[in-house]
Write a structure and sequence with these properties.
Blueprint: H1 3-29
Length: 34
């Protein structure tokens, strides 16, 4: 793999997992009222 491909893969992984972690933290601090 080229350096550019590795960099893009890291950026995509950080975006996906960062969003997942941020949403979990947000929901744990502000649970939805059912």
């Amino acid at each position: 793999m080229t350096t550019a491909a590795i960099v893009m893969m890291i950026v995509a992984l950080v975006t996906v997992w960062g969003g997942t972690v941020a949403s979990i933290i947000h929901l744990s601090r502000n649970p939805e009222e059912s």
